[in-house]
Amino acid sequence: MTTPFSYVRPRSVADVISSLEAEGATIHAGGTDLLGCLRDGVYAVDTVVSLGDVEGLAGVRELKDGGLAVGAMTTITDLAGHATVAGRYPGLAQAAAAVASPQLRHQGTVGGNLCQKPRCWYYRGDFPCLRKGGYKCFAVNGENQHHAILGGAQCFIVHPSDLAPALMALDAAAIIDGPAGTRRVAVADLHVAPAEDPTRETVLEPGEVITEVRIPAPPAGLYNSYRKIRTRRSWDFAIAGCALALTLDGDTVRQARVVLAAAAPVPWRSTAAEDVLRGNPLDDAHIRDAAETAMADAVPMTHNAYKVPLFKGMLIEELAKARPR
After folding, report:
1. How far apart are CA 105 and CA 173, in angstroms?
2. Phi/psi class of residue 6: alpha, beta or left (left: φ > 0; alpha: ψ in -120 to 50)?
3. Can you give the pTM of this predicted structure?
4. Res. 324: pLDDT tops 70
5. Quick one: CA torsion of 294, 264, 26, 207, rounded to 10 degrees?
6. Mean pLDDT value of segment 71-85
7. 233 and 305 in contact (C-beta within 8 Å)?
8. Domains in the chain and their CATH numbers?
């Protein structure tokens, strides 16, 4: 059961920003994460500000430069099934299709998926964990089989979004509106690592809201994919995942972006693996080297060492699929 709160439905982005000035106000997009957090007592709110009546926040439109703009209120289902998205950025469509269950994809939104709260059972449970303003990360000496093997510092969650790694691989940017105006933030810079601040998930300031995501035009020779591994294929969150955006010239990798999902507290770009691939043929030796390099800095916890070979095997399989046929 949730505590009482007021509920408002502004008609414009300006009114949304104004409504968020109220103390204890939070945004309601699809609500699939918000309502669960309120029910579980993860945090409390005084005012829920719905985006449901704001025109222009849903849908996909083409940009003059050949890229796409995706409204923050676009449902995951609509993104997964959009023909232009699937044609130009198949990895993004694959990531959207892998989110949760059909019911949650119908309700969940692009903006909500990027901004969702961690799924760590200590954060969601009745524990005074560091991310909730407590005194320690209980996963360090607890049940940590799904936790981070890269980038862990103070807090060892893994980022739950499927869309964030896929968009990061495509060099996408979030358009953010707030009291100070509009700003553009690369998806690669949207999320806050625990080493910087273990109590924040994103760089959004009070009163700010993501209104759309912009994706650059795909370069010639782009190979784009997303792979998600989960314990139950029907709806679970990832235990490992990767987004690839490789620019190929024949069998040579000219440019590479390799982003790991469920490996770290933020979507994790493996620039070291990219360096192995860039300028080289996509042969067995370079594929194996890239997979090994991606896991070179992994520091498993007591119960999640299985993730290291899992990520290596997944990367080898996915990079092999990118070879020209």
Report:
1. 22
2. beta
3. 0.97
4. yes
5. -50
6. 98
7. no
8. 1-49 (3.30.43), 60-116+157-215 (3.30.465.10), 222-321 (3.30.390.50)
